[in-house]
Specification:
The complex is a heterodimer of chains A (179) and B (255). Chain A is built from seven helices and four strands; from the N terminus they run βαβααβααβαα. Chain A is of the alpha/beta class and 179 residues long. Chain A has a single domain (3-178), classed as Rossmann fold, CATH 3.40.50. In chain A, helix 3 runs antiparallel to helix 4 (94-103), helix 4 packs across helix 7 and helix 6 (139-146) packs antiparallel against helix 7 (152-178). With 255 residues, chain B is of the alpha/beta class. Chain B folds into two domains: 1-24 and 238-255, no CATH class; 27-235, P-loop containing nucleotide triphosphate hydrolases (Rossmann fold, 3-Layer(aba) Sandwich), CATH 3.40.50.300. Chain B has helices spanning 5-20, 40-53, 70-78, 84-108, 119-128, 133-139, 156-166, 176-179, 184-205, 217-231, 241-250, and strands at 28-33, 58-62, 112-116, 148-153, 209-212. In chain B, helix 2 (40-53) packs across helix 10 (217-231). Classes of the chains: A alpha/beta (179), B alpha/beta (255). The interface between A and B is large, with 39 and 33 residues.
């Protein structure tokens, strides 16, 4: 049975390059799985070339766009691969966006509802960042750079906050596993 | 901008004080809702002209019109690449951006904002596409309630006749992404019937003012003027505190 080997694995973190490296390592058998990257839909690429006069988006706006991109990845990459019995590593998946939202002060209830359409990953990995490691090619780095009203100091605080949420989530998962 | 609990508390106080200050001219938000072909845009233009002649400072905002998100949606609609979830989330992002960039700043400055379609459009269309009302409604939180919502009621047949009289409905307008009907006109008739059913439920739940949009243009306009003159005296809705406070805190304006 092909479908029985299908598995969704998530790799989340604020450091985009470390997340990708961890995602590659998570595929045990390269021929039987693949990585679903952030911004497969190109939404954020389009956002980056938008006229600055259009105004900077808020954290909520960026999260709605992240969710739209994730819906695209689920439709075109993740669900078809799972249906074919493959392992899919979603890097990043839901936890990265939730951590960014929490760090920006977005209520947890809103974040939970936003990602209700995303199936839970069978395995969740967290990549803990080195200090200020979020680069602009990852969601957290780009979001912190684009979000309205964030100066350099606040950006660093926001990235640190997102990383702290991911660390806390990783600890919670580890404790639950032990129990 | 990080929204701390303390900043939000201060912002809530500022929002309440600003919008309930009797010495200050209060901003008003008026939404025009209804299916395609219900004549809302005609009525919105007439209403705006009249308001300006009465001395109001008027700002208009239309559905799916933010400079930041509209191009993203437009290019994906052109290649028919959107699922109902993506359609809903992108329109939610466009709405959020306009609330923060256009609507709230204008209300804060005491202006009158006319919204040609508001979040109810997203709710009616997304639910007609099979999405869960509760999920969609929460996407629009923190909710900003208009002072007045005019719902332009027409039958699916009238909507279909008016829309197809001059043009062919486009792929998403006709709901062809969910009806699987090849003929856009036939698909539109089926889809708009679902959308109108949702609108009618929302009009009841959210206490909208229903305007019979099968009446003459002049009669509708007169009715809107009268209802506006009565409705504009309503006090500021405290339900809007969270939406204003989050915007203020995000702008670093809480004080």
């Amino acid at each position: 049975m092909k479908a029985s080997k299908a598995r969704l694995v998530s790799v989340d973190g604020v450091d985009a390059s470390a997340v990708i490296a961890a995602a590659r390592r998570a595929i045990v058998r390269p021929g039987r799985g693949g990585v679903s990257h952030w911004d497969a839909s190109g939404i954020f690429q389009d956002l980056c070339v938008a006229d600055a006069a259009a105004g900077a988006p808020s954290a909520r706006t960026l999260l709605l766009l992240y969710a739209a991109d994730l819906a695209f990845r689920l439709r075109w990459e993740i669900r078809p691969a799972l249906a074919a019995g493959r392992t899919v590593v979603a890097a990043p998946y839901v936890d990265t966006a939730v951590a960014f939202g929490r760090a920006a002060g977005v209520p947890v209830g809103w974040l939970t509802n936003l990602f209700r359409f995303a199936p839970p990953a069978a395995e969740r990995h967290f990549v803990i960042a080195k200090r200020d490691a979020a680069s602009e090619d990852g969601f957290v780095g780009l979001a912190c750079h684009r979000v309205h009203g964030v100066d350099r100091r606040a950006r660093r605080k926001l990235i640190g906050g997102a990383d702290a949420h991911l660390r806390a989530e990783a600890k919670r998962r580890a404790r639950r596993k032990k129990q | 901008m990080q929204l701390s609990a303390a900043a939000l508390r201060v912002a809530r106080r500022s929002a309440r004080a600003h919008f309930t200050d009797p010495a200050r001219k209060r901003g008003l938000l008026v939404a025009f809702e209804g299916p395609d072909g219900s004549g809302k845009t005609t009525q919105r233009k007439l209403f705006k002209t009249w308001l300006k002649s009465e001395g109001y400072d008027v700002v208009t905002t239309k559905w799916n019109s933010s400079d930041l998100i509209k191009p993203i949606i437009k290019s994906r609609k052109a290649v028919r690449a959107l699922s109902p979830e993506e359609f809903s989330l992108l329109h939610g992002a466009d709405f959020r951006h306009r609330v923060e960039q256009i609507i709230l700043p204008a209300l804060w400055d005491g202006k009158l904002v006319i919204a040609d379609r508001f979040l109810f459009t997203g709710l009616a269309r997304d639910v007609a596409r099979g999405l869960d009302l509760d999920w969609v409604l929460k996407l629009y939180q923190p909710l900003l309630w208009p002072d007045l919502v005019f719902y332009f009621a027409v039958s699916p047949i009238t909507s279909g006749k008016r829309v197809t009289a001059t043009r062919m409905p486009n792929f998403y307008e006709a709901g062809q992404d969910v009806t699987d009907v090849e003929d856009p006109v036939e698909s539109y008739q089926r889809f708009i019937a679902r959308v109108i059913r949702e609108y009618e439920s929302l009009a009841l739940i959210f206490n909208m003012i229903t305007v019979d949009a099968e009446q003459s243009i002049g009669d509708q306009h007169r009715q809107i003027r009268e209802l506006f003159l009565e409705g504009q005296r309503r006090p500021w809705s405290p339900w809007n505190t969270d939406a204003v406070a989050e915007w203020l805190a995000g702008q670093g304006m809480a004080r």
